[in-house]
Amino acid sequence: MTLGDYSGMNRKSTIILIGAGVLCVILLAIAFGGGANSDPDVRYNYETEISHGFKSLSGYEVKPDSGNVFVIVTIHAYNDKASSISLSPLTWAWKAQAVNKEYSVSFHTYSHPLYDDGDLLKGGHTRFALVFEIPANAATYSIVEKFNWTFENIKRDTSIIV
After folding, report:
1. Longest CA–CA separation in the chain, Å
2. Three-state secondary structure of 71-137
3. Can you say how many angstroms the Cα of residue 42 is from the centroid of all Cα atoms in its chain?
4. Are 91 and 149 a contacting pair, CB within 8 Å?
5. Per-residue pLDDT tens digits for 71-128
6. Integer distance in angstroms from the first to the last C-alpha of the chain?
7. Centroid of chain to Cα 87
């Protein structure tokens, strides 16, 4: 076997390996992503409200910093298929955008009466809240929905009443 024959086999093997790798990625995406048209594992809808404060679960008044307001996002979620889905703000890693900036979940989320970081089990439904703190002078804001550390197919369902 000459060196030229060996490098030709190498090239052919490389192409086969790359093709097999691409096929594996596609199959994994279908298996974990559920496909583009499949029914979601978890459905949710949400509503937002601007607030100048709220009463915590333990009864004390929670206020935003001076010059800010809270955006309270109330989420109603149904777990139709997944064995469980975390309700933690680390999984529901949403952001609020206002005044050309992006804001992470406020630590005040943890004192909101609808705060929940448990797991929603298959067949269950719940309401929980995320709290953001944005400048009071923001004329508009939007919510950016992002999920971390989950393979579940999570989709917004606007037919759900929050």
Report:
1. 82
2. EEEEEEEEECCCCEEECCCCCECCEEEECCEEECCCHHHHHCCCCCCCEEECCCEEEEEEEEEEECC
3. 11
4. yes
5. 999 999 999 999 999 999 999 999 999 999 999 999 999 999 999 999 999 999 999 9
6. 71
7. 10
Phi, psi angle pair for 52, to nearest 5°: -95, 5
Sheet hosting strand 142-144, strand order edge to edge: 101-103, 95-98, 142-144
Q: How many residues does the chain have?
A: 162
Q: What are phi and psi of 158, to 5 degrees?
A: -70, -5
Q: Is 33 helix (H, G, I), strand (E, B) or coil?
A: helix
98 closest CA partner among 67, 135, 64: 135
- Mean pLDDT for 2-15 is 59
Token digits of residue 104:
């992470």
**Nearest partner of 160 among 96, 80, 51, judged by Cα:** 80
Q: How many CB atoms lie within 10 A of CB 95?
A: 16
Give pLDDT, residue 127.
97
Among positive and negative, which fits the CA dihedral 42, 47, 49, 54? Answer: negative
Name beta bridge partners: 144: 95
Q: What is the pTM of this model?
A: 0.76
2 SS3 class: coil
